[in-house]
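Hi U.,

Before I forget, here's the chain from the pilot set. I'm dumping it here mostly so it's searchable later in email.
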Amino acid sequence: MISTNLCIRRVFSVALAATAIGTMALRSSAQAVTPFITSFASGENPSFGTLLYDPTANSGSGALIGTTLFGGANSNGDIFSSTLTGHITTLYSFSALGLGGTNADGATPQGGVINYGGNYYGTTQSGGTGGFGDIYEYNTTSHSVTDLYNFLTSSSPTGELAVDKNGVLYGTTSTGGTFGTGSVFSYATSTSSFTELYDLGTGVNDGLYPDAGVAVVNNTNGSTTVYGTTNSGGTGSLGQVYSYNTVTGYQDVYDFGNIVNDGSGPSGGLVIDGAGNIFGTTNGGGAYSGGTVFEISNTDTYSQLYSMNDVGAGGTGTDGYSPVGTLVDMNGTLLGVNEAGSINGVGDIYTLTPTYNPLSPYNYADIFSFNGGSNGGTPLTGLTALNSYAFAGTNAGGGDNGAGVLFVITPEPGSIATMSIGALSLFGVGFARRRRLRK
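Structure:
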């Protein structure tokens, strides 16, 4: 394990354990889930957003909610719902663009949606009255979209929003802000007020150009801390993990490039476990230039857990490479997705299982390799937990129409698992529950 001590101060770290909204908590579910594959219609193409699982949707039968970049009646993207048997329905089509690339509801959503108060909230990267995207609310009763805030400069909001206990939404723009290098913002649903919290580039060593969504932590003193990543910037210009606290402001948590063979270019979200440890991935860098998985402990120690080793990325192995999306923490076993590499060169689903061996602390297992055809390929986002044994995701390519697929996988519990996806399956390493060791 490659570790380095961070010279940072974690603000209100005691509060992380119980209140990390960014943690992907596994659910017990009454719904039986069967693995399936469903192809998107030609030209639709799923967005880079993580699917939302809403167990109350579809009359209580549960549904997966997502967005497409170019689908819908006007080819400007849509919000869709999928039953747990793979039937996809368009919930809302974003409207056509008028003069100057504007409309009343936004277009081409890059991120997915979140559920707050029974309605869905998200962002678009274009359209709206300013032509540079908006924050919107989808009402699940009226099936209508309300344009909450319009970005008026080249802001391009990206990634999923996150919400704190007071109903304040948090997100980022990949560009825009005072310096054109992105910003962190909030939107209070109770007062309909937008605040640009921080312009990235204000500090000389700030991270720049965030691509992913954020994780939000409610602190015991009533403040909120937002955690996120930037694709570049920081002291090494290779990206950064940052935090923004509503009382103390912006903080550089970790700058990539601080150790030999460090990761670079984080483009996925962060997951925070119940003990306050942060997990994430980088799309590049590492010992084989194929990306890495990392942890920042609640004692502020950075550790590179694994470097992707694939021939396609310059390595010698058959791992996938270029990890994307947000990891799922399965009681210590990490479940993730690579957008490239593995046996067929178009990505895989993998696990990292702790070994308790300090020389090789995690075992990598390629538990499903996409084929680029019937089961899709080139995933651009992470997986969504439906319960403790079923997970959903999307692929940008492949499928019956070449526009990607939506799938549900069901790894069996135990030391050896059959990873099933639709009618296809292969053997992989299963999930073993463990108690997290304290550092």
